[in-house]
Amino acid sequence: MNPAKSSTSNVNTQKQLLEKVEVNKSTLGQRVADAMAARVGSWSFLIGQSTVLAAWVGLNLTPGVPHWDQSPFILLNLVFSFASAYTAPIVLMSQNRQSDIERQKNEYDHLVNCQAAQNIELLHEKLDTLQAQQIQELTQIVKQQQQALNEIKASVLPTIKEQQQFISEIKVGVLPGLKGQNNSKLPKEVLVYLPFNFEKSKEDNS
After folding, report:
1. Considering only CA atoms, which of 134, 152, 113, 142 is closest in space to residue 7?
2. Integer Cα distance of 149 and 143 in angstroms
3. What pLDDT, in 10s, does the model give residues 53-112?
4. Which residues, at least 6 apart from 94, have a Cβ–Cβ distance to it below 8 Å?
5. Which among 10, 206, 12, 7 has a CA at the least distance from the CA of 105?
């Protein structure tokens, strides 16, 4: 399972639990204030209020209908004044509560972000440590290979020098005899092919 997905699901679960706890902690008055604020701040309430207002004014202006609130509609003004006097504090209470909820959520998000930043820093430290360890291992391997190469050179160079010395001894012993027999000039360098082991021949000669 991907750890990033699991951490994201854990954060979402914790947020849902936080919201449920906040809903359970709210009192009856807070829930009523939230419901009234949601109702007042909707198109249905505005349309209903406009309908009641139009009906109120229309009925009180229509001739032949009993008028309970004649112009200038003092009773209507009183009703709206009372409605405004109670609606405004309820809406403010709901807004304050929503502000507190948002503040708590922001604090929680801040804590989650801080924790994520710490996890990222720890991950970077682990990656740096792993990279340094790998570089150290590679450096050690290179040193071992160089040491092995030096050992091979140390073991091969004496053998090559012995073979070159043995070839020069053969040239010294062969060239005078050939020159005396043919009475001819030989080239300065003569390549001699010896299909046998130099070390074995040297041991036989000794």
Report:
1. 113
2. 10
3. 999 988 888 887 888 888 888 888 998 899 889 888 888 888 888 888 888 889 889 999
4. 30, 33, 34, 36, 37, 38
5. 12
The Cα diameter of the chain in Å comes to 162
CB 4 within 8 A of CB 86: no
The two three-digit tokens of residue 134, written as one number: 């790998």
Q: What is the C-alpha to C-alpha distance for residues 164 and 158, in angstroms, rounded to an integer?
A: 10
- What is the SS3 string spanning 118-186? HHHHHHHHHHHHHHHHHHHHHHHHHHHHHHHHHHHHHHHHHHHHHHHHHHHHHHHHHHHHHHHHHCCCC
The owner of tokens 């071992």 is 144
Tokens of 84: 């405004």
Please, what is the Cα angle at 70 between 69 and 75, to 5 degrees?
Answer: 35
Prediction pTM value: 0.44
Structure tokens at 26: 């709210």
